[in-house]
Specification:
CATH architecture: Alpha-Beta Barrel
Order of helices and strands: EEEHEEHEHEEEEHEHHHEHEHEHEHHH
Distance between the termini: 27 Å
Strand content: 5-15%
Number of domains: 1
Radius of gyration: 20 Å
Helix content: 25-40%
Largest sheet: 9 strands, parallel
Oligomer: single chain
Number of strands: 15
């Protein structure tokens, strides 16, 4: 049975998110689609794809690399480190704004999740510890390699790349950026008390392991303003072979440092039944965006309950927006949802990307 929002649904209420007034509290989560051009320039279809989904309270783009060396986890993922990238992203932002929407760009450094056969460069990480995973390279699946452990003098370059990417994103017309500190990528790797084996100022204690993320957030805030900056984290999430023995201490240290900055939002990928959820929520007084993961992010009754109770400010959903560009309309009238086609998630071209039908299109077909 299809879910239907009540007229007074909490998720349909407007929300001030930093400098952006979101029209509702149902955000589009970042979704890698592997349709960018070989040089990291977004696909010619990207503007249409994102504009179709502009009714989301905020559209958060797919993870977008801050530099050439930051890319390489998957083929054909976009970047925001050249003029060509910026020009194409400007078309995306303009298309979303034309449809009345708001869009934030997720900024990404993959760290040890990168493969040299994809990026052309050797991956970096806090420590020379490989993830026990494989990458889908142009020549098939290959094990991830042992990364280069960043030297102290190399770390400021990472921070500078995040800053420069944020400037390019805003100059391209994005309403803001989301710093990717989750899902096993570089910032998450530094935060882990397992992957990060450093003994210098960026390793050891929870405060030291949080240092790089804090420096990145501070630099981006300094560059574009706190009202345009969000941060995504995934406490206790083992994605990317990143384990955390004590996620509560880790994220207490991180949030203690960044809470005073007044970020637009904190985006947390977590199971809300975990003890960690309550701790993280108590530490954050600003806009709190929940993503419950693939298995439950279409349980709209539960997500609406979280918003009604005040446990979350907004929710981010992925696959439902992927398959239903008019998701808000469908939930408002109680229409059935399109099912996402897993086989086309990462394939090139328009199929499974811009061809999911809206209710209006289905009605037009039936009446033709």
């Amino acid at each position: 049975m299809a879910f239907t929002f009540d007229d007074d649904a909490a998720l349909l209420a407007p929300l001030q998110v930093g400098d952006t007034l979101a029209g509702n509290r149902l955000f589009m989560a970042p979704l890698t689609r592997s349709r960018a051009q070989a040089d990291g320039t977004p696909s010619y279809l990207a503007a249409q794809y994102y504009a179709q989904r502009a009714s989301a309270g905020i559209v958060i783009t797919e993870a977008t690399a801050i530099s050439k060396s930051a890319n390489g986890a998957y083929v054909n993922t976009p970047g925001i480190y050249t003029d060509r990238h910026q020009q194409k992203w400007a078309q995306v932002a303009s298309a979303v704004h034309y449809e009345g929407g708001h869009i934030f760009m997720q900024l990404w450094h993959v760290g040890r999740m990168g493969h040299p056969d994809i990026s052309g460069v050797h991956p970096v990480a806090p420590s020379a510890v490989a993830a026990d995973m494989t990458a889908h390279t142009p020549d098939g699946k290959k094990p991830l390699v042992v990364p280069h452990a960043l030297e102290m003098e190399e770390i400021p370059r990472i921070v500078a790349d995040f800053r420069a990417a944020a400037r390019r994103a805003v100059d391209a017309g994005m309403d803001g950026v989301e710093i990717h500190g989750a899902n096993g990528y570089l910032l998450h790797q530094f935060q882990s008390d397992v992957v990060n084996q450093r003994t210098d100022a960026y390793g050891g204690t929870a405060e030291n392991r949080a240092r790089l993320t804090v420096e990145v957030v501070e630099a981006v805030v300094d560059e574009i303003g706190a009202g345009r900056v969000g941060l995504r984290i995934s406490p206790g999430n083992g994605v990317g072979d990143v384990r955390e023995n004590d996620p509560i201490a880790t994220y207490e240290a991180l949030l203690d440092r960044i809470a005073p900055l007044g970020l637009a939002y904190l985006h947390v990928l977590i199971d809300p039944t975990q003890t960690t959820f309550g701790v993280i929520r108590a530490l954050w007084s600003g806009v709190f965006v929940l993503n419950t993961g693939r298995e439950t992010d279409t349980d709209f009754c539960q997500l609406e309950s979280f918003a009604q109770w005040g446990a979350v400010s907004a929710v981010a959903v992925g696959r439902a927006f992927l398959a239903n560009p008019d998701l808000i309309d469908r939930l408002t009238v109680g229409a059935e949802l399109n099912e996402p086609d897993v086989a086309t998630f990462y394939s090139p071209g328009p199929v499974g990307y811009i061809d999911y039908p809206t209710l209006a299109e289905l009605e037009a077909r039936e009446s033709a």
